[in-house]
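thread: overnight batch results

M.L. [08:02]
morning all. the overnight job finished for the chain we discussed friday. pasting input first so we're all looking at the same thing
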Amino acid sequence: MNILKSIHHIAIICSDYERSKKFYTEVLGFTIVREIYRQERDSYKLDLALNGQYIIEIFSFSNAPQRLSQPEALGLRHLAFAVSSIEEGRTYLKQHGVESEAIRIDEHTGKRFTFFADPDGLPLELYEV
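M.L. [08:03]
and the structure it wrote out:
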């Protein structure tokens, strides 16, 4: 019996809370579900949704340790977002000052994708569906 139902959320610790908040809401279009300042931890927690579905939690912690964060680094590889058109997605990102890699093709599915990064270098992907 499988007890898992679905992925509930992805948690991200950022280095600059306001910069990440702006990137995920104004550039990527997530909506704010709730924003909490936890005084005892001197930390913000921002809950974000995409098309009404709760997806990402953004945390701010002072002095969070650095971590390697490339698509091929050990650990969480990347967070991928589905798009209808990879060209439109890349154009949109570029208009918002976000560079992306050249378009790649998945050799098994034939689908096109590209990687880009959030303000802290977290690897993100656009995947054409």
